[in-house]
Specification:
Length: about 90
């Protein structure tokens, strides 16, 4: 394997390791806008404006990516969102 092939292989492996996952929040008929906003601020560390925009997108589009990052970083946040009654998935 020549040097260029080796560098390409290392980059490809690095890209796979650092793949960003997403927490996707889904619309429901249970939680209020205020509750969703408050929860996104507390769990996902959103600003009030970010949380409000996500809540509006979830309401009108049915879902919204609310956080991206590594699987290990996002898993506990997704579990918290679920335990607080929100409909979320980690993809």
């Amino acid at each position: 394997m020549n040097t260029i092939e080796k560098v390409k292989e290392e980059v490809s492996v690095a890209e796979l390791i650092n793949v960003n996952n997403q927490i996707v929040l889904h619309n429901d008929d249970v939680n209020t806008f205020d509750y969703v906003i408050e929860t996104l601020i507390n769990i996902c560390e959103h600003t009030a404006e970010q949380a409000e925009q996500c809540a509006i997108l979830v309401h009108y589009k049915g879902k919204c990516t609310v956080k991206t990052g590594s699987f290990d970083e996002l898993k506990p946040k997704c579990i918290q969102l679920l335990s607080l009654g929100l409909s979320a998935e980690l993809i």
